[in-house]
Design brief:
CATH superfamily of the largest domain: NAD(P)-binding Rossmann-like Domain
Number of helices: 16
Mean pLDDT: 91
Shape: globular
Strand order of the largest sheet: 7-4-3-8-9-10-13-14
Largest sheet: 8 strands, mixed
Radius of gyration: 20 Å
Structural class: alpha/beta
CATH topology of the largest domain: Rossmann fold
Strand content: 15-25%
CATH class of the largest domain: Alpha Beta
Number of domains: 2
CATH architecture of the largest domain: 3-Layer(aba) Sandwich
Distance between the termini: 41 Å
Length: 380
């Protein structure tokens, strides 16, 4: 039986609804803010969306309602999904695109769950990836699946979003530019074509390393966590993006971002580098001029634990450690990256230079520039 889905159309800036045959079959894997935003947004855009979450009890409200409540500037509305399931085999069967907007710390387990079900020609999109495109592809191969799958990652989530309930998500803003790298890079053209059917804001930026070095999280969040450590531990709720973003913090963030861009240039990756300063100063960044809207929403005034929040476990322990290791490999002086990493390691009680997502731990540190480029282009 053919299923028809409501789709939002641009009509004088408001939401109107039509019905059309779905454009693509898409699986969304995850249960967080980004996953629920993606499931609702892509379903409303006319795609046949299957939402998978391994926590069946937490997913139950969506299963029972068959929909997610999506809120944005157009108001709140119910968006039906084709399927919500805790069975990953069902979610992945026959889909063209797999979107995984989850923290990088979940990527290993998700890769293991996906591995038996991936087939040639599928595209996996990690927004963002923290070099997860390379890591997840390797994990899938290590357990025996040699399917020719394209893995892609971009620099941020396609949405600034927060869940407001068990099946309700608020989208403050949508990304308008999503620079995306592909692994293996030989599949770049095909992968970008597929992803753009869902996210027209996507554009190719080269290989997986280029995509990983577009990641905004390891640039914006570690300075905010370190330089707001006292108020974060003192107050029940604190907005690191409002009163937590002062001139001294911005100065550190800008210098850290210059280190990121120097690393990109050292690897031969060209502009645009999407400097994070554009997030604060103008409309040229991935979300456009978004900082004021982010603060105004109030969704980021929250309780943040310095040991368990994903700004530490994902953006610092994995993302910043990866950036610092890339700088070491490229011979780029990166004192801010290494300094922030050392401070976070100080309150966590471990040396973050030896974490799981560094050039050294991934076996890339001994590769020459030519060998690394070939690995990223051809795959393993």
């Amino acid at each position: 039986m053919t299923h028809f889905f409501p789709v939002r159309t641009a009509a004088a800036g408001s939401s109107t609804f039509a019905f059309q045959i779905p454009n693509m079959k898409i699986a969304i894997l995850g249960g967080g803010h980004g996953a629920y935003a993606a499931a609702a947004d892509l379903s409303e855009a006319g795609h046949e969306v299957r939402l998978w979450r391994r926590d069946a009890a937490a997913l139950a409200p969506v299963v029972q309602a068959g929909a997610i409540t999506l809120k944005d500037v157009d108001g709140a509305r119910e968006v039906p999904l084709a399927l919500a399931t805790a069975d990953i085999a069902v979610a992945l069967k026959g889909v063209e695109l797999i979107v995984i907007p989850t923290p990088a710390i979940a990527q290993h387990d998700i890769a293991l769950a996906m591995a038996p079900h991936l087939v040639d020609g599928q595209v996996v999109f990690l927004p963002p990836g923290t070099f997860g495109s390379y890591v997840m592809a390797r994990t899938v191969q290590e357990v025996g699946n040699r399917a020719d799958v394209a893995w892609a990652e971009t620099g941020t989530l396609p949405y600034l979003a927060r869940k407001h309930g068990e099946r309700e998500v608020n989208v403050t803003i949508r990304a308008i530019r999503l620079p995306t790298g592909v692994y293996p890079a030989r599949n770049e053209a095909e992968a970008i074509t597929v992803i753009r059917k869902a996210y027209p804001a996507v554009h190719g930026c080269g290989d997986a390393l280029s995509g990983a070095l577009m990641n905004a999280g390891p640039i914006i969040h570690p300075p905010l966590m370190v330089m707001n450590a006292a108020p974060l531990q003192h107050f029940e709720r604190w907005d690191i993006h409002n009163e937590g973003t002062q001139h001294a913090v911005r100065d550190v963030t800008d210098r850290l971002d210059r280190e990121r861009m120097a690393v990109r240039e050292a690897f031969g990756q060209g502009a645009p580098h999407y400097p994070l300063a554009d997030h604060y100063n103008n409309d040229q960044w991935m979300y456009g001029d978004a900082h004021k809207q982010l603060v105004k929403s109030g969704d980021w005034r929250e309780n943040i634990d310095l040991h368990t929040h994903r700004y530490i476990t994902e953006d610092t322990e994995l993302g910043l450690a990866f950036l610092a290791s890339a700088a070491r490999h490229a011979g780029v002086d990166a004192p801010i990256a290494h300094g922030l990493l050392a401070i976070v390691g100080g309150f966590l009680g471990r040396d973050l230079r030896h974490g799981p997502r560094t050039f050294e731990s991934l076996g890339l540190a001994d590769l020459s520039a030519a060998q690394l480029k070939q690995r990223l282009h051809d795959g393993e």
